[in-house]
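Continuing the series of single-chain predictions for the mutant panel. This is the parent chain; the variants come on the following pages.
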Amino acid sequence: MKIKISELFLIFSIALIIGCTSDDSKQRKPSEVQVEKVIDYSNIFKPLDGTWEGEFKIYIDTLGQRKGTPQPKEIDYNLISKPSFKLQSIIKAKHIYKSVTPFYQEGEIIDVITNSDGTEDTIKSNARNLVEDKKLKCFVYKPNETVVHEGEFLRNNTIVWHRSLKNPLKIEYFKETVNDGYYKIIGWGYYGKDDPNLTPRIWFYADYIKTK
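Parent structure:
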């Protein structure tokens, strides 16, 4: 089933976040307490500073939703090559980011959507990335909504982002990696009448290069 490109794209944005740790150390002997990994949150947005340009691609799994792993967390960039994934749309994207402080970054997102009749629509949004209570958050101010993502820093310059809204249904999970002038995104989303207890129907992939 096809989706409206303009409606789907207004759902997505770039954001950054940190991980949470549970505290069960009080119930354990000192020798059993694991050393907590300390994350330096200062300048965590710095790798995104600059201008990035590329394509944001939306895929539909032609096998539809089915039993399997719902809302999978183990995903990688090779998933896009699955035979059942059909390219639904391509959005030309430009992201501009500038760190204001070590814990706060401002950005502008410019997306050009090509309609079925060949005409183009340009959507401009503002982004704010910040550290709040040792958590990374991203606010994307779109023309008709504000999108908020949270997540955690993983490893190898990779951050995972997520949000979960029930009404209307908008569940997203994606990983982004910034390395050596390349910026990539891989993830999935559940929207509308999708069943979160089945495999994702919608996937997306972005590949940007640093131009300034």
